[in-house]
Amino acid sequence: MKIITLANAEAALDEVRRDADKLHSRELRKAIEAYIEKQRAQIKALRRMMN
Q: Which of 6, 32, 34, 51 makes a 20 to 30 Å CA pair with 13?
């Protein structure tokens, strides 16, 4: 089982964003951006729960 830290998860989201910026489809970029923001909100909630 691979353990992913919250910092690694945030870094992965940054990488996904950079890759998504290269896509030609505006609709797909927008959908990916919305997904990234939802994931960031979940990471933020996890950080609050851990503190």
A: 51
